[in-house]
């Protein structure tokens, strides 16, 4: 494994109540873990479980090449959870799709199971836009880049923590106005 930095609190512990002005850089986790594509699936599962994270960025030389999530590890031979396919579906699937499904189930290295269609965000993006992307794309984590290099990760839990702080700020503002 390349880097075992633990996720920490977001970069900014205090967030103003001016929600639309918040940028990803204020909320993202700047302490995170990455793994190399050659790491074993077992090592990654152990690391994710011990760190309490649901995703790890797969990186080479500080540049993300993919992401491995808990969802990528659910349909595994070791669990007895081998996907079944109906013969008629294989008739309409191309060889690459079938090979990818096989590799995700039986692959022993991260490069076989990781998602390579990586969605990323830059640190200057408004948090509202990043939150919308997480929702629309149906992903839980977005790697944050600066000049193509990984500088943080933004997860749904980072946004929920921020919402909690904003909610308590907003509640006190409402209460004082009343």
Can you walk me through this structure?
The protein has 178 residues and is an alpha/beta fold. The protein has a single domain, classed as Roll (CBS-domain). It is 39% helix and 19% strand. The protein contains 7 helices and 7 strands; from the N terminus they run E-H-E-H-E-E-H-H-H-E-H-E-E-H. The strands form 2 sheets. It has a 4-stranded mixed beta sheet with strand order 1-2-3-4. A hairpin with a 2-residue loop joins strand 3 and strand 4. It is globular and about 45 Å long. It starts with a strand and ends with a helix.
- Beta percentage is 15-25%
Low-pLDDT parts are 2-19
What fold name goes in the CATH topology slot? CBS-domain
Number of domains: 1
The helix content is: 25-40%
Indicate the mean pLDDT.
Answer: 77
CATH class: Alpha Beta
Q: What is the number of helical segments per DSSP (H or I, 4+ residues)?
A: 7
SS content category: alpha/beta
Ends: how far apart? 54 Å
What is the C-alpha radius of gyration, as a whole number of Å? 19 Å
Instruction: For the largest sheet, list the strands in their spatial order.
Output: 1-2-3-4
The main β sheet shows up as: 4 strands, mixed
CATH architecture: Roll
CATH homologous superfamily caption: CBS-domain
Number of strands: 7
């Amino acid at each position: 494994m390349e880097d075992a930095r633990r996720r920490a609190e977001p970069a900014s512990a205090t967030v103003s109540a001016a929600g639309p002005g918040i940028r990803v850089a204020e909320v993202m986790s700047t302490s995170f873990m990455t793994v190399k594509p050659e790491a074993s699936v077992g090592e990654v599962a152990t690391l994710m479980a011990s760190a309490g994270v649901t995703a790890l960025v797969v990186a080479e030389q500080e540049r993300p090449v993919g992401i491995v999530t808990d969802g990528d590890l659910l349909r595994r031979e070791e669990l007895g959870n081998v996907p079944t396919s109906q013969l008629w579906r294989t008739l309409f699937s191309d060889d690459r799709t079938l090979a990818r499904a096989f590799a995700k189930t039986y692959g022993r290295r991260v490069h076989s199971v990781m998602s390579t269609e990586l969605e990323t965000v830059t640190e200057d993006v408004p948090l509202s836009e990043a939150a919308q992307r997480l929702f629309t794309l149906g992903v839980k984590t977005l790697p944050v880049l600066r000049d193509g290099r990984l500088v943080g990760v933004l997860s749904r839990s980072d946004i929920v923590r921020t919402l909690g702080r904003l909610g308590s700020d907003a509640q006190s503002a409402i209460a004082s106005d009343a």
